[in-house]
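Thread: "does anyone have the structure for this chain?"

Original post by V.I.:
We have the sequence but no experimental structure in hand. Need at least a predicted one for the grant figures.
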Amino acid sequence: MKKIFFLLLAISIVSCKKSEKKVDEIQKPNVKLYQLIGGSIFVKKLEVFSQDTTYTGQQKQFTDAYYVISHPKGNLMWDAGLPEQLVTPKPYDEPSGTFRIQRPDSLANQLKSIGFKIEDFKYFAMSHSHFDHTGHANLMKDATWLVQENEYNFNLSDTLKQKNPALVALKNVKKLNGDFDVFGDGTVVIKYMPGHTIGHQVLYVEVAGLEKPVLLTGDLYHFEENRENKGVPSFNYDVKQTLESMDKFEAFAKEKNAEVIIQHSPIAFKKLETILNKK
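Reply from O.Q.:
Generated one for you, tokens below.
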């Protein structure tokens, strides 16, 4: 009798666990991810992406992706590509001679292609405030801007003589100090990863229907070799912080078994496009 009792108890426990798992799966919100092209960046002097002479004389094609995350509690836009003034027939060679840049289309047109409008967004966040990530930021003025407090102060503090013009229209601000669970359910989480800039951040997204969560790098890495060799660009805010963030990022990616997407990599862009199309 005892054996039968314990057998029934074991079956009951297993059944309960399976039921709990099914309930969890059912209750997971329907999070969708869309990838858009915020520009093309041809790097004519790749050596700026190293602390030494590793890439001297080399050139490389970057993409400049930004993302739309649709959640039942609201929509989030992540990053903002290049300025819309660069939607031109020919690419622009900026004065330093480092970058050749161009944007394919306006934000309004790109959002229309996936069934969204500019006013559909509850939240707006950027990995950081460099020019290739703030392009259409001022158009997101009706959304709440999720930004690390130190990054905000670096760009828009009242003590600054010159504020970042690409961000001045953003008045609805939620200042962060570290990681932030955007919708409060663990599916969309901003992770604080400083070093590239003072308040650089990356984004973790659990997309419905995907086997793995997606982890967007911001500019922690710029291309695959950068990640493999822990290469730190010459223009990063803090080298030590960058390397610490890389270690933290890799540990988190491993813990979550995440699909890492390097935002400036054309290879990663195609990979994510393939993953999303298979859903």
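V.I.: this helps a lot. The two ends are 49 Å apart (CA to CA).
O.Q.: and Residues 2-27 form the longest helix (26 residues).
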